[in-house]
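Regression test case RT-17, inverse folding.

Input:
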């Protein structure tokens, strides 16, 4: 099964009060696709990069249980594991540059708009 979606959306405050800014993921390389930020990969990210909206991915989900949950709409969130490299602190913590470690399928994303947008 293949999916597309946004692992992060720019200029939107997440539940921790953080905001990703455009360019935060510039030059991102290959990272694993996990389930809930742990364990072995549950598939592979085929394409990843920034567009005007955020960090967009296309991935194949090969593990049976996560694929079933995604198809059922129960695992529709995406989330990123990262290390902050450049931060601006104001009313919110602005993530200007991060080192991306992984993208995860999650039931409840930190950022409400970080979602699987297409299953095919």
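Golden output:
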């Amino acid at each position: 099964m293949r999916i597309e979606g946004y692992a992060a959306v720019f200029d939107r405050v997440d539940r921790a009060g953080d905001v990703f800014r455009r360019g935060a993921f510039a030059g991102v390389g290959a990272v694993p696709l996990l389930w809930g930020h742990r364990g072995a990969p549950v598939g592979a990210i085929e394409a990843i990069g920034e567009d005007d909206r955020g960090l967009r991915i296309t991935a194949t989900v090969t593990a049976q249980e996560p694929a079933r949950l995604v198809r059922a709409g129960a695992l529709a969130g995406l989330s990123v594991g990262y290390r902050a490299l450049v931060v601006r602190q104001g009313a919110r913590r602005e993530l200007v540059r991060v080192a991306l470690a992984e993208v995860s399928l999650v039931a409840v994303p930190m950022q409400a708009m970080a979602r699987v947008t297409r299953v095919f």
